[in-house]
Structure formats: C-alpha cells, structure tokens
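does this look right to u?? guanosine-5'-diphosphate version
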Amino acid sequence: MEKTLAFIKPEAVCNNNSGKIIDSIENAGFQVAALKMVRLSVEQAQKFYEIHKEKAFFDDLVNNISCGSIIAMVLAKENAVDDFRKLMGAANPAAAEEGTLRKLYGESIEKNGIHGADSLENANTEIGFFFNKLEIIE
Ligand code: GDP
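got this back:
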C-alpha cells in the first residue's frame, strides 16, 4: 500500500476542523497509519519547506506553519499520493474544486488548512521528517 504524508495546518486545528478533516480522509478510503500533534519551531518549519526558500512567500509560510500545533499523519491507500492531492484540492481554496478539503476548510492560499506531499519521493522524505518506522502501522 502506498503511503503519503499530510498535516492539518494550525488554522484548521484552531478552528476545530480536525475531526471533520480526518473523517473525510477515512471516508475517502485512506487508513491513518500514524498520527501526532506537534508544534514546529521556526527552524524546523524552515527545514521542512526548504524547497520553497527562494519564494517571496517563504517567511509567511514558515511563520504560519510554526504559529500553532499541526496534526501530522501518514496515510495509506493505493495511489495515496495522487489521490490525496485530489481530495485536498488546489492550493488556493478559491480555485479548489467543490467538496475538496481546501475548498471546505481553507481560508486563503496561505492558510489553506492542509498539506499533502506532492510526489512519492517527497512523501517518503516528509514521513521521515515527522515519524520513525516504529510509529507507523505496516
Ligand atoms: P501545495 O503543494 O498545493 O501545498 O502548494 P505549493 O507547494 O505551491 O505551496 C506550498 C504552500 O505554500 C501552500 O500550501 C500554501 O500554504 C503556501 N503558498 C503557496 N502559494 C502562496 C502564495 O502565493 N502566497 C502565500 N502567502 N503562500 C503561498
């Protein structure tokens, strides 16, 4: 079974949308293979989003993701990476398809409620960032 890495961003945790988001994820056929609530330091957030360090929005992105707790999850399903990107929707909630998590729970392109890895390679790197092997259901 393929695995991807997702996390519920601070704005969605603060707005009490975590339960509804996890419910939608399970109803879409994903198994929650690992889950933890963590608060990233600015340095950890910079490392996680290193790929975006040249972007104009990098500091905003890092500050937003480290301003409160996030809920990180390993999600297992056939075709998990691509299927989760579809369930999540486009980065800008205003442009995201109806019924997607970002359309339902995102507030803006920055505070879009949820993160999902964009490739299998990045999923494996991101899973390793948050979890060790013993914490993940096989
Ligand atoms: P994703 O893979 O769909 O999350 O999108 P990207 O990899 O393009 O961007 C990563 C994250 O950066 C997004 O989820 C947003 O939180 C944030 N982001 C993307 N574009 C912008 C932007 O134009 N402005 C701001 N402030 N944040 C952005």
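The mean pLDDT is 97. idk if thats expected tbh
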